[in-house]
Specification:
The complex is a heterodimer of chains A (720) and B (268).
Chain A: E1 2-6, H1 14-23, H2 36-39, E2 54-60, E3 66-72, E4 81-83, H3 85-88, E5 108-109, E6 115-121, H4 124-132, E7 135-140, H5 147-151, E8 182-190, H6 193-199, E9 202-210, E10 222-228, E11 231-236, H7 241-252, E12 259-262, H8 279-289, E13 293-296, H9 299-305, E14 307-308, E15 311-319, E16 325-337, H10 343-353, E17 362-371, E18 377-378, H11 385-403, H12 407-414, H13 433-443, E19 453-461, E20 466-474, E21 480-484, H14 493-505, E22 512-513, H15 533-550, E23 555-562, E24 565-566, E25 573-574, E26 579-590, E27 597-609, H16 614-633, E28 639-640, E29 643-644, E30 663-670, H17 687-696, H18 709-717
Parallel strand pairs in A: 2-13, 11-12, 14-18, 16-17, 21-22, 27-30
Antiparallel strand pairs in A: 1-30, 2-6, 3-5, 3-7, 4-6, 8-17, 9-15, 10-11, 10-13, 15-16, 19-26, 20-21, 20-23, 24-25, 26-27, 28-29
Chain B: E1 5-7, H1 12-22, E2 26-29, H2 33-40, E3 48-51, E4 61-64, E5 67-71, H3 76-81, H4 83-88, H5 90-97, H6 102-105, H7 110-115, H8 123-129, E6 133-138, E7 141-146, H9 147-150, E8 151-153, E9 156-157, E10 164-170, E11 176-182, E12 193-200, E13 203-209, E14 216-217, H10 228-238, H11 249-267
Parallel strand pairs in B: 1-3, 2-3
Antiparallel strand pairs in B: 4-5, 5-10, 6-7, 6-10, 8-9, 11-12, 12-13, 13-14
Classes of the chains: A alpha+beta (720), B alpha+beta (268).
Chain lengths: 720, 268
C-alpha cells in the first residue's frame, strides 16, 4: 500500500498549495479567473427563467398535527393563481419507498410546515403577499414529536396505512408494522446473541442519541416547471433525476417519457436535493396557471423541507476479558418525521452499519424507521452511518475502559480482515480498516500518550443494488459528448468523469463535453448518492468506450449493474458491493468549569483505492470533516412544540473557518491496482465519535450529540 | 403591493426632520445586519426604512478632551482596527473583534448595535463597563444618555420616536478593562454569556451580557476590594438568566460565575 499524506491548512505542503491555487477559480498560469462558479457564469436551478413564468410560494400548516377544515383562496388578487387541496385530490400519491405523500395535505396536515396550499404570482413578493391572504381553518389533533413516544403503544398514528412504493428507489423488502408508526423494520440475525452475552466477561450497555441537522446547502431548493401539451418539463436542482421523473409521472398519471427532468449543477446539496421535494407543487401550479412556475424555497423553510434523521440507538456489546468481541445487540430508532421519504433506507443502513467493522460472532440488530409529527428527514451526507457510528464507536471506548485495554488495541484485535465474513454473511474484500485506523492513530501521536485523544473507525455501505449507464457520442470536431445522468453538486463528479473519459478515449479533457443531465437525452442511472458515481459511472464509462471502439467509433453505450441486497428479516445477503472505509482521530481540550470542548487536532484516514481527481478528493475529505465537526459540537435542529425553534442561520450554528482545529489533516490511502472507492462522505461519520472518545478519555461519558458545553458539563459531574 | 418606503436623507438635519415626521413608523437602518435579519424573518414590517448611509459626518473616530468619540456610522471593523482605539481602549477594540464575522463587522455600526438593543450583542456590555454615553439628537435638540440607561429591555431603548443616536463617547484616562465572550457553539455565534469588567479610579464595574433583557450591572455587588470569586458568586445569584439555543438558564448561571471570576482575575 502507498500511503499519501496531505497536510492541511496549517502544514500546507506543495500539493495542497497547488490545489488551493486552482480552486480559487484561476486558470493556474495567468491568474485569469475562468471557473464559471467564480465568474458567475454558472447557471443553477435558482437562475432558471422562462418567458411569462410565475413565482410560487407555499402556504404551510402552523400545527404539528391538524385537520385541514377549510382552505379559502378567494381573496387573492387577480393575476394570481392558487392551488388548494381540491385541485390535487385526484393526483397520485408519491414517496420513493412508502407512498405516503400528497401534493398538498388533503385532510390532515402532519407537521409544522406541511404544505396545505400554494400560490403563483408575477413576482416572488406578490406570491408572498398572496400566500398570506389564503385562509385556512384547522382543528388541532394529538401529535407525537418524540421517536420513543411514537413507538410506544397508544401513540397517535401519523399515518393510518403504509402503502409500499414499487419505484426504483424501493429496492429492498419493506416491513411496515401496521397499526404503528413504524414504516420499516430491518433485522440482522447472526449467531446466537444470548449465548454470546452469556459467555461474555464484560458487557457495556447504553443509549446513544444524535440530533437532527440541516444540510444548509448554499443554493436553496429551486425548480422551474412548465407544460408543453401533456409533457411536463422540470428544471431542478436534484441528485436523483430518474427517481424524480418516476415520482412526477406517478403523481400526474403520465408515462415516464412524458416527464423530462433537467438537472443543472447544484449550489450544494449534501443529500437534501433527492427525490421529490417541491417539484410537484410547482408542476401542479403550472398546469393550473397555464404558465411556467418557478418555486424557490425560502431559507427559513428549508428546515421544514428536509433535515437529517435524529436517532436513538440502544446498544449492548459483550467481550471476553482479553477483548475478543462475543456479542452485540442494537436497536436503532430513526425519526423520519411526518413522511418516510428514503427513511426506510436510512434506518436499514443505520442498522447494517451498527455492528461496525468488526468480527462479532453473535449479532442482533433491529432498526426501525419511525414516523413523528415533525418535518421530514431524509438523505444527509453519511446516510444513517453517522448515527450508528457514534453509538458503536463510543461503546467500543467504554468497553476498552471497562476491560482496561488501549482502545486502539481493542479495535485492532477485532477489526475485519480481508476474507472475513461480515454479520450479513458477505465476504469482505480489499479491507483496510486497520491501516486507516493505525494511520489516524499515528497522526495524533497515539502511542505517545492518549490523554485527550480519541479514535474511531467505520465501514459504510454503498447503494446496493445499483445500476449506472452512460452513452458517449463522437462529435464532428474530434471531441466527444457524455450522455450521463450523474449530477454535479460541487463534489466534482463532472470533472472526475470527464477526466476518466478523456483518459479512456485518449484525448485532452477539454475535448470531452458533459452537458447538464436531461432524462430525455441520457441513459438511466440509479442516482448521484452514496458516494457511488465515480466508482459506478467510471466502470460504465470503460464499457462505453469499449463499445464505441468496437462499433465504428461514433457512439458507445456502457452499463454496469451491481446486484445485491439484504433480507429485511435476517439481514443476510449483500449489503454493499463496495465498502467505504475510514477512520478519524481527534485531540481535544475540555474546559472543566464550562464543559466547552476545543478540538485542537483532527485527522482522517480514508481508503480511496485509486484517486481519480486528487484536488476534489481532498476537498471531499475536508468538507466531510468540517461537517462532522459541526455535528459533533453544535449542529442541532431544535424543536419546540413540534416547530423548529432555530430555523435560520443565526440561531442554527454551522461551523465557520474559525471553528476549525489548529491542525486539520487527512490522507487518502491507495493501493496499486485497486478499484476506485467513493469518498464523498467517508470522513464524516468517524469524526463525532473520535471527538467524543477524546473527551471520553478526560472523563466525559458522553452519549448524546452534539457535545454542547452544557451536556459535557453534566457528563463531567457524573464522573465517579 | 409595495415594500417599505426607502428614505435616504443626505444630511443629519434632513434625517432628523424625517425621523420627527415618521416617528416609530420609520425603522432606522445603517449597516443593515440586524434590520435585514428581522425583515427577512418577517419580524419587522415598517412603513419606511430611514437609511443613514448617505448622511455625512457620522463616520469619524476621534479623541477630544481625552474622550473617545465614535460616530454612529463607524463600523465594527473600523473600531476593531483603529490604532486610536487599540491604544487607548484595547478592551473595546477586542470586543468588536469578537463580533460575528468580518463580513458582518464590515457592515454593522456602533450606533446600530446600541440602538438595536439586542440582548445578545457584545459591545453594549463593554460600553457600559467603560462608562460610555450616547449623544442623542432630535429636531428638539441634543442630550447625552449613559449606555447603561439607553437599553431598557429586549430590543427596547429610552430613545424617543424622533431621536437618533449620533455619537458614542467613551471616557479615557488610565483604566484596565477586559471582555470575555463565552460561546457555546460556533466562533461566529453570539455569546452565551459575555462579561465586561473595568477598573478605573478605584471603581469596579462588572457587566454581564446576553443573559437577560439588557446588560446586567449591579453597582452594589462591585466592591473593588472583594475577591473575584466572591463577586462572581454574587452576580450568579443576582441574575435570573434566559434559556435559549445557546444554553439553559441553569447552565448560564454556572457560566456567569465562572466567567465573571475569570474576567476579574484577568484584571488583577
Amino acid at each position: 500500500m502507498r500511503s499519501r499524506r496531505f497536510r492541511d491548512r496549517a502544514g500546507r505542503d506543495r500539493k495542497a498549495g497547488r490545489c488551493s491555487a486552482r480552486r480559487d477559480g484561476s486558470d493556474g498560469d495567468g491568474g485569469r479567473v475562468t471557473d464559471p462558479r467564480v465568474t458567475g457564469a454558472a447557471r443553477y436551478a435558482i437562475d432558471s427563467e422562462l418567458p411569462g413564468m410565475l413565482h410560487a410560494r407555499i402556504v404551510r400548516s402552523p400545527y404539528p398535527h391538524a385537520r385541514v377544515v377549510r382552505v379559502d383562496a378567494s381573496s387573492i388578487p387577480p393575476g394570481t393563481v392558487a392551488l388548494v387541496p381540491d385541485d390535487v385530490r385526484e393526483l397520485g400519491r408519491y414517496g420513493v419507498q412508502i407512498r405516503d405523500q400528497t401534493v398538498l395535505a388533503l385532510d390532515r396536515a402532519l407537521h409544522v410546515g406541511d404544505p396545505v396550499a400554494a400560490v403563483a404570482a408575477p413576482t416572488a413578493r406578490d406570491a408572498e403577499e398572496a400566500a398570506a391572504l389564503v385562509e385556512v381553518d384547522y382543528e388541532e389533533l394529538p401529535a407525537v414529536a418524540d421517536v420513543l413516544e411514537a413507538v410506544a403503544p397508544g401513540a397517535p398514528l401519523v399515518h393510518d396505512e403504509h402503502v409500499l412504493s414499487s419505484g426504483g428507489a424501493a429496492y429492498f423488502g419493506l416491513r411496515p408494522q401496521p397499526g404503528t408508526n413504524v414504516c420499516h423494520r430491518f433485522r440482522i440475525r447472526h449467531g446466537d446473541v444470548d449465548a454470546g452475552f452469556a459467555e461474555a466477561d464484560v458487557v457495556v450497555q447504553d443509549v446513544f442519541r444524535t440530533a437532527g441537522a440541516q444540510h444548509a446547502h448554499m443554493e436553496p431548493h429551486a425548480c422551474l416547471a412548465s407544460w408543453e401539451g401533456e409533457t411536463l418539463h422540470v428544471r431542478t436542482g436534484t441528485q436523483t433525476p430518474f427517481n424524480l421523473r418516476e415520482e412526477l409521472a406517478q403523481v400526474f398519471g403520465l408515462e415516464q417519457e412524458r416527464v423530462r427532468v433537467v438537472a443543472p449543477p447544484m449550489g450544494g446539496s449534501f443529500g437534501a436535493k433527492t427525490f421529490l421535494r417541491a417539484e410537484a407543487i410547482a408542476a401542479a401550479l403550472a398546469r393550473k396557471a397555464g404558465r411556467p412556475v418557478k418555486l424557490v424555497i425560502p431559507r427559513s423553510e428549508e428546515w421544514l423541507t428536509l433535515n437529517r434523521h435524529p436517532a436513538v440507538i440502544e446498544l449492548a456489546i459483550g467481550a471476553r476479558a482479553d477483548g475478543v468481541l462475543l456479542a452485540k445487540r442494537v436497536a436503532c430508532y430513526a425519526d423520519t418525521g411526518a413522511y418516510a421519504d428514503c427513511g426506510p433506507g436510512v434506518a436499514q443502513k443505520m442498522g447494517f452499519a451498527a455492528p461496525g467493522p468488526y468480527r462479532i460472532p453473535n449479532v442482533a440488530v433491529d432498526a426501525y424507521c419511525v414516523y413523528t409529527n415533525t418535518p421530514p428527514n431524509g438523505a444527509f451526507r453519511g446516510y444513517g452511518q453517522m448515527q450508528s457510528t457514534w453509538a458503536s464507536e463510543r461503546a467500543m471506548d467504554m468497553l476498552a475502559d471497562r476491560l482496561g485495554l488501549d482502545p486502539l488495541e481493542l479495535r485492532l484485535r477485532n477489526l475485519l480482515r480481508d476474507g472475513d465474513r461480515y454479520c450479513t454473511g458477505e465476504t469482505m474484500h480489499d479491507v483496510h480498516f486497520a491501516e486507516c485506523l493505525e494511520a489516524a492513530a499515528e497522526a495524533i501521536g497515539w502511542r505517545d500518550g492518549r490523554r485527550g485523544k480519541g479514535l474511531a473507525v467505520m465501514l459504510k455501505g454503498m447503494q446496493t443494488p445499483s445500476r449506472a449507464s452512460v452513452a458517449i457520442e463522437a462529435g464532428t470536431d474530434g471531441g466527444y459528448v457524455l450522455r450521463c445522468a450523474t449530477t454535479e453538486m460541487g463534489q466534482g463528479a463532472r470533472a472526475a468523469l470527464t477526466r476518466l473519459a478523456a483518459e479512456l478515449l485518449e484525448v485532452e479533457p477539454a475535448r470531452v463535453r458533459f452537458p447538464d443531465p436531461d432524462t430525455g437525452l441520457v441513459p438511466y442511472d440509479t442516482r448521484t448518492t452514496s458516494s457511488r458515481s465515480t466508482y459506478m459511472m467510471g466502470r460504465a464509462l470503460a464499457e462505453a468506450v469499449r463499445d464505441l471502439r468496437a462499433n465504428g467509433g461514433r457512439r458507445g453505450y456502457g452499463e454496469i449493474a451491481n446486484p445485491g441486497g439484504l433480507d429485511p428479516d435476517t439481514g443476510q445477503g449483500v449489503a454493499s458491493t463496495h465498502w467505504h472505509q475510514g477512520a478519524a482521530a481527534a485531540e481535544v481540550r475540555v474546559d472543566e468549569e464550562t464543559g466547552k470542548v476545543e478540538v485542537v487536532r483532527l485527522h482522517a484516514a480514508i481508503y480511496a483505492g485509486r484517486v481519480v481527481d486528487r484536488a476534489s478528493a481532498e476537498l471531499q475529505n475536508e468538507g466531510s470533516m468540517i461537517m462532522g465537526l459541526g455535528t459533533a459540537l453544535f449542529e442541532e435542529v431544535v424543536l419546540a412544540d413540534g416547530a423548529v425553534a432555530n430555523a435560520n442561520l443565526s440561531d442554527y450554528a454551522v461551523p465557520s473557518f474559525a471553528d476549525l482545529p489548529g491542525r486539520l489533516t487527512h490522507e487518502l490511502l491507495e493501493r496499486d491496482g485497486a478499484e476506485i472507492h467513493g469518498l464523498g462522505e467517508t470522513a464524516l461519520p468517524p469524526v463525532p465519535p473520535a471527538i467524543g472518545n477524546a473527551a471520553g478519555s478526560l472523563g466525559v461519558r458522553a452519549t448524546e450529540l452534539p457535545l454542547t458545553p452544557e451536556r459535557v458539563l453534566a457528563a463531567l459531574e457524573e464522573r465517579p | 403591493m409595495t415594500g417599505p418606503e426607502w428614505l435616504a436623507p443626505e444630511s443629519l438635519e434632513e434625517a432628523l426632520a424625517l425621523k420627527a415626521g415618521w416617528g416609530e413608523d420609520a425603522t432606522v437602518v445603517a449597516g443593515g445586519t440586524f434590520v435585514g435579519l428581522l425583515l427577512n424573518q418577517r419580524l419587522l414590517a415598517p412603513a419606511a426604512l430611514l437609511s443613514l448611509r448617505d448622511v455625512p459626518g457620522l463616520g469619524a473616530i476621534g479623541v477630544e478632551g481625552g474622550q473617545l468619540r465614535l460616530g454612529a456610522l463607524v463600523t465594527h471593523r473600523a473600531v476593531e482596527r483603529s490604532a486610536v482605539v487599540r491604544d487607548g481602549w484595547p478592551a473595546l477594540a477586542g470586543t468588536f473583534r469578537l463580533v460575528a464575522s468580518p463580513r458582518v463587522r464590515n457592515q454593522a455600526t456602533v450606533g446600530g448595535v446600541l440602538a438595536d438593543a439586542d440582548h445578545a450583542s457584545d459591545p453594549p456590555s463593554t460600553f457600559t463597563a467603560l462608562g460610555a454615553s450616547c449623544v442623542v439628537r432630535s429636531v428638539r435638540g441634543e442630550r447625552v444618555v449613559p449606555v447603561s440607561e439607553l437599553i431598557t429591555g429586549f430590543y427596547a431603548t429610552s430613545l424617543a420616536p424622533d431621536e437618533l443616536v449620533v455619537e458614542v463617547r467613551v471616557p479615557g484616562g488610565p483604566h484596565r478593562a477586559v471582555y470575555r465572550k463565552f460561546r457555546s457553539r460556533s466562533h461566529e455565534d453570539r455569546p452565551c454569556v459575555g462579561v465586561a469588567a473595568c477598573r478605573r479610579d478605584g471603581e469596579l464595574r462588572v457587566v454581564v451580557g446576553a443573559v437577560a433583557e439588557r446588560p446586567q450591572w449591579f453597582p452594589e455587588l462591585c466592591d473593588p476590594a472583594a475577591a473575584p470569586a466572591e463577586i462572581a458568586r454574587a452576580y450568579a445569584a443576582a441574575i435570573d438568566p434566559i434559556s435559549d439555543v445557546s444554553g439553559s438558564s441553569a447552565y448560564r448561571k454556572r457560566v456567569i460565575e465562572v466567567e465573571v471570576r475569570r474576567a476579574l482575575e484577568a484584571l488583577s
